[in-house]
């Protein structure tokens, strides 16, 4: 498979202008959130954060192709997927501020909490897809992971499992060029991660991950295939992580500025803007409104996050088991009385 | 009542669970057509079909990882790991996800499942089939670890595990899968998880054991009685997590001496937790240090050395006698 075979959006518009405007809005909003989150971390007002800048099209294009009932198993960088699938921005921020209430999606939102150990969420999606198949549900599972995850055993075990069992599942790989410092060319010998699907008898598709329409169409096709009993698909969205791996990382240690500049020219938001301009659907008035609205939503989410009451010890003890074991109840009492004493000492 | 072995009781429990609730499915390697390498699932695929009793690819992390997805999406998976020592590739799934999903999502998701795995030595099996690594799972908050020692308990504990709202690791002592039979009630019943069982009452010293070490404890107690006239209490813990600390306290308060017995190596073994529990709850009653009769601090050996490794009745009796003969100050 050559680079030429990467799917890009076709000339013929298959996505309505309304949808393209929605994509733009979401990408713009998530980029603002992302930049604000990085800034908050720098100010010591947020914990270590994994930025998504550059991957907005891959995340939003794919998430918009999902149906509300579909079950999403993300890695740790899919803030835009989470938001599109129904996770409030405030909770996304709470998670990165070290709080479990940020890992809890609202009732009815089929989104698993962030998965930090690489590739471990992939088998979960296989299980959820198997359950959907056994129960005859009109539901598919989707799992998100990066290029680094494709070297892990869990990726291969789950790919094989899903293919053998013909599960309604989409494996969505955001190949953002790097696993922390390791470039994709040192991660895998194949040119395209999508080729790995072949070994499991599965269809693999590579798509331009910075082309939001192309991502959306590829995902919509894979979702429809999975939902109609056609089995799993591996989608590789070729994109680029503009920032560092996390706020604790410094990408300038391992990659050239020229490379980053090259990818800046392929910016997914700029490309969506150009597509809208071609359709005559990008007026200054419209975009000003969009940006103002995004700013309001992001600011509100940050304020909501900051005004959340402090965590209590309930979050530590109450959900280890459904019914708290006796010994744990004793330990909770110890911690509560220690906390009360600490408060009285501080006056 | 049916006269059955421990493994027969397990098959019985699985059949009842499959009959009672259509969300229950069994998945694992060779569990379907072959009925499992020990035949624990024999006949079940034939009876319930391939969508209820499912052969999976040979992939332990995928079996446990998929069980999480199954559980959160409305099924009750019973996963079989062929031998507990083969569960290591799935350890990450168990520790990072199975045990934590309830807490991580603050109760929004939970992964009630049962992971069954034969474990332990004594059957001349090949290398790496015989480990007793139960402590590395008992150390993990969010998991429950249950080990039956009798057919009655095997059935009742397994049905309790399947009904439990949290993930339960159900470790089956393969050495006593078929070593004896007992009368087991027909139909559904449960044995509560987290309650120890007094196997034999005594007044001088308590031996704490579980799984295949329970009969060894009884033999050791018998030897100590016959040779030295010692009255030994034997307690089968049945559940390592949660641990029945009250039962440990009550027995040591009565006897004042204790021996902990396990197949696994001594260093950082589960016996140390029992000793610490005795320190916490019954130190004032102790008349001797708690003795540990365990495997040696070596990897589990190939079977030519198995008998030398494995605690037996003589070593248990020796531990009991040491506890009885201990004189305060003797070690100063």
Automatic annotation (TrEMBL), chain B:
Pfam families in UniProt: Transket_pyr, Transketolase_C
Question: Transketolase-like pyrimidine-binding domain: from which residue to which, for each copy?
Answer: 4-179
Claim: Transport is one of the keywords in the record: no
Highest taxon listed in the record's lineage: Bacteria
Molecular-function GO terms, alphabetical: oxidoreductase activity
What PANTHER family does its record include? PYRUVATE DEHYDROGENASE E1 COMPONENT BETA SUBUNIT, PYRUVATE DEHYDROGENASE E1 COMPONENT SUBUNIT BETA
Tell me the protein's name. Alpha-ketoacid dehydrogenase subunit beta
Report the source organism: Sulfoacidibacillus thermotolerans (Acidibacillus sulfuroxidans)
The lineage is: Bacteria, Bacillati, Bacillota, Bacilli, Bacillales
């Amino acid at each position: 498979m050559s680079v030429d075979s990467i799917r890009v959006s076709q000339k013929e518009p298959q996505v309505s202008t309304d949808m393209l405007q929605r994509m733009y809005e979401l990408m713009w909003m998530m980029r603002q959130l992302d930049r604000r989150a990085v800034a908050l971390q720098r100010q010591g007002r947020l914990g270590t954060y994994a930025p998504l800048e550059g991957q907005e099209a891959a995340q939003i294009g794919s998430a918009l192709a999902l149906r509300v009932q579909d079950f999403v198993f993300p890695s740790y960088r899919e803030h835009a997927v989470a938001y599109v699938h129904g996770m409030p921005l405030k909770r996304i921020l709470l998670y990165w501020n070290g709080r479990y209430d940020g890992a809890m999606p609202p009732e009815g939102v089929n989104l698993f909490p962030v998965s930090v150990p690489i590739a471990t969420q992939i088998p979960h999606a296989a299980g959820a897809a198997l359950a959907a198949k056994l129960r005859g549900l009109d539901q598919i599972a989707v799992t998100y992971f990066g290029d680094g995850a494709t070297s892990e055993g869990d990726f291969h075990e789950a790919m094989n499992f899903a293919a053998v069992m013909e599960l309604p599942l989409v494996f969505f790989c955001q190949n953002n060029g790097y696993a922390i410092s390791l470039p994709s060319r040192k991660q895998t010998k194949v040119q395209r991660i999508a080729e790995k699907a072949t070994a499991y008898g599965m269809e693999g598709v590579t798509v331009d991950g910075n082309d939001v329409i192309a991502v959306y169409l590829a995902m919509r096709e894979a979702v429809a295939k999975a939902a109609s009993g056609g089995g799993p698909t591996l989608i590789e969205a070729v994109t680029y992580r503009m920032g560092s791996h996390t706020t604790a990382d410094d990408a300038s240690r391992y990659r050239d500025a020229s490379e980053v500049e090259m990818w800046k020219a392929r910016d997914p938001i700029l490309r969506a803007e150009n597509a809208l301009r071609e359709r005559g659907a990008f007026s200054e008035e419209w975009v000003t409104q969009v940006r103002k609205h995004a700013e309001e939503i992001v600011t509100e989410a940050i304020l909501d996050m900051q005004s959340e009451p402090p965590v209590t010890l309930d979050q530590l003890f109450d959900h280890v088991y459904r019914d708290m074991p006796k010994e744990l109840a004793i330990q909770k009492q110890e911690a509560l009385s220690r906390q009360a004493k600490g408060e009285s000492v501080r006056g | 009542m049916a006269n059955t072995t421990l493994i027969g009781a397990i098959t019985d429990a699985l059949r009842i669970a499959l009959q009672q609730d259509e969300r229950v499915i069994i998945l694992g390697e060779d569990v379907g057509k072959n009925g499992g390498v020990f035949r624990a699932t024999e006949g079940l695929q034939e009876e319930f079909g391939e969508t209820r009793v499912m052969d999976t690819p040979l992939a332990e992390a995928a079996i446990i990882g998929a069980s999480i997805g199954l559980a959160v999406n409305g099924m009750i998976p019973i996963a079989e790991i062929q031998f507990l020592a083969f569960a290591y590739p799935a350890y990450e799934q168990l520790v990072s996800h199975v045990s934590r999903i309830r807490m991580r999502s603050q109760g929004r998701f939970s992964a009630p499942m049962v992971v069954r795995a034969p474990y332990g030595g004594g059957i001349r099996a090949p290398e790496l089939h015989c480990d007793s690594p139960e402590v590395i799972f008992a150390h993990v908050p969010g998991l429950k670890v249950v080990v039956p020692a009798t057919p009655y308990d095997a059935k009742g504990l397994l049905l309790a595990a399947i009904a439990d709202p949290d993930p339960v690791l159900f470790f089956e002592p393969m050495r006593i899968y078929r070593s004896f039979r007992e009368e087991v009630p027909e139909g559904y019943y449960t044995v509560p998880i987290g309650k120890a069982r007094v196997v034999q009452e005594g007044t001088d010293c308590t031996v704490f054991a579980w799984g295949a070490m329970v009969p060894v404890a009884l033999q050791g107690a018998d030897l100590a009685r016959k040779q030295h006239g010692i009255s030994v209490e034997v307690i089968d813990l049945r559940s390592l997590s949660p641990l029945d600390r009250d039962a440990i306290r009550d027995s040591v308060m009565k006897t004042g001496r204790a021996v902990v017995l396990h197949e696994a190596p001594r260093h950082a073994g589960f016996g140390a937790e029992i000793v610490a529990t005795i320190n916490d709850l019954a130190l004032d009653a102790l008349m001797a240090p708690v003795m540990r009769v365990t495997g040696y601090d070596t990897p589990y050996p190939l079977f030519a050395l198995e008998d030398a490794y494995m605690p037996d009745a003589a070593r248990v009796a020796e531990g009991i006698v040491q506890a009885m003969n201990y004189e305060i100050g003797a070690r100063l």
